[in-house]
Specification:
Layout lengths: L15 E4 L2 E4 L6 E6 L9 H16 L3 E6 L6 H12 L4 E4 L5 H10 L4 E5 L9 E6 L1 H15 L4 E6 L4 H17 L4 E6 L6 H13 L4 E4 L5 H7 L5 E6 L10 E7 L2 H13 L6 E4 L6 E3 L7 H16 L9 E2 L5 E3 L7 H5 L15
Helix pairs in contact: 1-8, 2-3, 4-5, 4-9, 6-7
């Protein structure tokens, strides 16, 4: 799967110490070199572009206190490990690896460069004290868009273009379906697995396959605008921006979006390196923290827009959680009892569809 110069200086700039099982810099830095590894091109229209926009804002924030370098179109596996190694050897103090499939390579390279900080997006492995993981609660945005889908579909058939069968993606499928079903019990969901993050042709083919099955609302967890471009050519089909607003397709077929906001996180983590306060951690923010935003809702009724915005506001206020029981698994067994709320551990192990979704998750 793929996802999505200031010299380091040497010992005078600080060294890593282990204290109480946590890692901290013994002293801060006056300047920092920062690396980013991208799985797609910086102009992909979605995931990588959203990260790169955040990187440019981060560079503007720090000015000459930070030199930021990046490498785009880096496949997972040996290629990504080589890219990370080269960044570490070039003097990067902190390296952000921005795709799920970089998880094992990130930890492998971190073991070889204990003085370099590594931050891995959307993963869960922190095998060394110089590795952090960070993510965003995309499922919150899917819940809001699910309301729009359920209210707007005319065929009662909604579709989902999925990338890879990992918890992050399955969370979004389940959240979208549950909230569409909440407002429209007749809704059916069809999932097409594209097995890619960033291949416009495959994404467009997946969208066409859904449309051919009568789907008129399309979600995507892939990185480009290809599904919306196809929807634009097909009257009556709507969809949602993914990772970036994809505003070039509004007011329709793009009727809303999930926007990833990474700049505040990048600024805080780079500042921690400069301050000498960086520690290994796991970060998972959502709508309330501004890590996820809902794009302007367009092309739907005023009532649907108000209902979706009310759900967004409830999630932000903490008065509603998208995964609150009763919720059953696909096989009818109880997952969450009445009033029970899913924990982060539940999300980390999500490898099943909820009740009502037809089809199997690929192994």
């Amino acid at each position: 799967m793929q996802r999505r110069t200031i010299l380091k200086g040497g010992a005078a700039l600080g060294f890593a110490t282990m204290m109480g099982g946590k890692m901290a810099l013994a002293q801060g830095l006056e300047k920092v070199k920062v690396g980013f590894i991208y799985v797609g091109p910086i102009g992909d229209g979605g995931w990588t572009q959203a990260h790169h926009v955040a990187v440019l804002k981060t560079q503007e924030h720090f000015g000459d206190k930070a030199e930021i370098v990046w490498q785009e179109n880096v496949p997972e596996g040996a290629d990504s490990e080589r890219a990370m190694t080269q960044m570490a050897l070039s003097g990067c103090n902190i390296i952000f690896t921005t795709s799920f499939g970089y998880m094992d390579p990130t930890n492998a390279v971190a073991a070889k460069f204990p003085d370099v900080k590594f931050e891995h997006a959307t993963g869960y492995k922190r095998e060394h004290p110089n590795v952090t993981t960070y993510n965003a609660r995309f499922y919150e945005g899917r819940a809001v868009n699910g309301i729009i889908a359920g209210r707007t579909t005319k065929t009662n058939k909604i579709g989902y273009i999925a990338s890879f069968p990992i918890p992050e993606v399955i969370q979004g499928i389940n959240s979208s379906y549950l909230h569409a079903k909440k407002v429209n019990p007749a809704v059916e969901m069809t999932v097409v697995w594209a097995f890619t993050w960033n291949e416009p042709a495959k994404e467009a083919d997946a969208a066409k396959a859904l449309i051919d099955q009568g789907v008129d609302v399309i979600f995507q967890h892939t990185d480009t605008t290809a599904p919306l471009a196809l929807a634009q050519k097909t009257p009556g089909i709507i969809g949602f921006g993914q990772a970036r607003d994809m505003e070039e397709y509004k007011p329709t077929p793009r009727v809303s979006s999930i926007i990833d906001r990474w700049d505040a996180y990048y600024i805080s983590r780079i500042q921690a390196v400069l301050d000498g306060t960086w520690q290994s951690q796991d970060s998972w923010d959502g709508l309330a923290q501004g890590a996820v935003e809902i794009g302007e809702i367009t092309g739907v009724s005023a009532e649907t827009k108000a209902e979706a915005e009310a759900l967004r506001d409830a999630i932000i206020a903490g008065t509603y959680h998208p995964f609150t029981g009763p919720i059953n698994k696909q096989d009818g067994s109880v997952w969450l009892a009445e009033g029970q709320v899913a924990t982060d551990a539940d999300f980390a192990g999500m490898n099943f569809y909820v009740e009502g979704i037809v089809g199997d998750i690929p192994s």
